[in-house]
């Protein structure tokens, strides 16, 4: 199970299928608009 987390607000953006447990950091639409 992979998780994408917003690096600004720490909100979980989405989960995706992955063999290993991984966490990727991105920016959610809410923080992107600021």
UniProtKB/TrEMBL annotation:
It comes from the Bacteria. InterPro entries: SR1P. This is GapA-binding peptide SR1P. It comes from Virgibacillus byunsanensis.
């Amino acid at each position: 199970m992979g998780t994408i987390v917003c690096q600004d607000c720490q909100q979980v953006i989405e989960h995706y299928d992955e063999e290993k447990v991984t966490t990727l950091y991105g920016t959610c639409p809410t923080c992107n608009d600021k």
